[in-house]
Design goal:
The protein is an alpha+beta fold and about 325 residues long. The chain is built from 6 helices and 18 strands. It has a single domain, classed as Penicillin V Acylase, Chain A. Helices cover about 15% and strands about 30% of the residues. Belongs to the peptidase C59 family.
Length: about 325
C-alpha cells in the first residue's frame, strides 16, 4: 500500500512525494532513462521521447513506479486492489500497455498533465501480469507538473481519462471520488485548540493543544492515511526553498510511514514502507529514502544527461544507517 501527496512551497516550487509500502521486496533504485528509448514492454514495444529519472528496476526491461521527467512532470503508481479493471486487448487505434509499464510511458512521452489528458485517450491498459509478482498489478496513478496541475488516472473501465485531484493527495482503494467524499466526515477538524464547555457546573480542565484534531484517524488503512495526509498537508507551515520543503515532506510522510511488523497481511507477511520518493519538479530531481537509511539520496537531470547520454544509468542506494557523531 502507498500514500502520495503534492506540495507547493512559498517560492512556487512544486513537489510530488510518496511512500512505497509493500511486503514483497521490490529492490528498486534510482535510474536515469535517456531520451529516445525503445522499451520492450510486456504488452509490446513502445518508444519514449523525453529523459526521466525515477525508482525502477531492470527485469525483462526497465520498469518504473515513480519519477520526474525533463519537463518536470512527476508520476507515481499506487496499488488499487479490487477496483482496477483492465482490457484484454487494445483496439487497433490505441497503444496497449501493461499496468506496470504506464509510468515509464507517461514520463517518456508527456510534457505536462494537460498534455497527458490528451495522450491518455490513445492508450489502453491491458490485463497483463508482471513476472516479478506473478500477477497483474492493480494500479492507479497520480501526476503533477510545475503548474500545480494534479490529476489521477484510475482504470475502472476501458474508458481512460484523467480525474482532477483538488487536494493533491492519493492513497489506495477505494476510488479518489470516495476519498474526497469521506473527507466531509473530518471537515470540522482544525489545528487550533477547541474551547471547552462546562457540564452541569463542573469546570473542565483542558488537555492542552491538539484537541482540534480529536477524531483524526491514526490507523494504516488507506482511508485513514488519506485523511491524515490531507490534514497535515493543509495545516503545515509553508517552506521557502527546496531543502526546507524536502524536509517538510519527510515529516508529512512520517505520518503514514509503516514500520516493519505493524501491518500484517493474511499470509503473515508485513507491508512496510520500503522507501519514500520525492520528486522536485522544477529541479527535475528525484530523491529516494530507503527504509534503513533516512538520508535523502538524489539524482538531478542535467542538460548533459539529456543531450549526450544514450544508455540507462542505475544509481545504487546506500542502505547503511547514517549517524552523525558530535563528539
Amino acid at each position: 500500500m502507498c500514500t502520495s501527496l503534492t506540495y507547493e512551497n512559498s517560492r512556487g516550487d512544486h513537489f510530488l512525494a510518496r511512500t512505497m509500502d509493500f511486503a514483497f521486496e521490490l529492490g528498486g533504485q534510482p535510474i536515469f532513462m535517456p531520451r529516445n528509448q525503445k522499451i520492450q514492454g510486456d504488452a509490446g514495444e513502445f518508444t519514449t521521447k523525453y529523459g526521466f529519472v525515477g525508482a525502477g528496476r531492470d527485469l525483462s526491461h526497465y520498469m518504473f513506479v515513480d519519477g520526474v521527467n525533463e519537463y518536470g512532470l512527476g508520476a507515481a503508481a499506487l496499488y488499487f486492489s479490487a477496483y482496477a479493471k483492465y482490457a484484454k486487448k487494445a483496439p487497433a487505434d490505441k497503444l496497449g500497455l501493461a499496468p506496470h509499464d504506464v509510468t515509464a510511458w507517461v514520463l517518456g512521452n508527456a510534457k505536462s498533465v494537460a498534455d497527458l489528458r490528451e495522450q491518455v485517450k490513445h492508450i489502453q491498459i491491458l490485463d497483463i501480469p508482471v513476472a516479478l509478482l506473478g500477477l497483474t498489478t492493480p494500479l492507479h496513478f497520480i501526476f503533477s507538473d510545475p503548474t500545480g496541475d494534479t490529476a489521477v488516472l484510475e482504470a475502472t473501465s476501458e474508458d481512460l481519462h484523467l480525474i482532477d485531484d483538488p487536494v493533491g493527495v492519493m492513497a489506495n482503494s477505494p476510488q479518489l471520488s470516495w476519498h474526497l467524499q469521506n473527507l466531509s466526515t473530518y471537515g470540522t477538524l482544525t489545528a487550533e485548540e477547541r474551547p471547552l464547555h462546562d457540564y452541569m457546573g463542573f469546570d473542565l480542565t483542558t488537555q492542552g493543544p491538539g484537541t482540534g484534531a480529536l477524531g483524526l484517524p491514526g490507523d494504516y488503512t488507506s482511508p485513514s492515511r488519506f485523511v491524515r495526509t490531507v490534514f497535515n498537508r493543509h495545516f503545515s507551515n509553508p517552506t521557502p526553498d527546496v531543502p526546507s520543503t524536502l524536509n517538510l515532506l519527510q515529516h508529512l510522510l512520517d505520518g503514514v510511514t509503516i514500520p516493519k511488523g505493524v501491518k500484517l497481511k493474511a499470509d503473515g507477511h508485513s507491508d512496510y514502507t520500503q522507501y519514500r520518493g520525492y520528486m522536485s519538479l522544477e529541479e527535475r530531481a528525484y530523491y529516494m529514502e530507503p527504509y534503513d537509511n533516512l538520508e535523502l539520496q538524489g539524482v538531478k537531470i542535467t542538460d548533459e544527461m539529456l543531450t549526450d547520454w544514450d544508455t540507462p544509468v542505475e544509481y545504487p542506494l546506500d542502505h547503511k544507517p547514517h549517524v552523525h557523531q558530535l563528539n
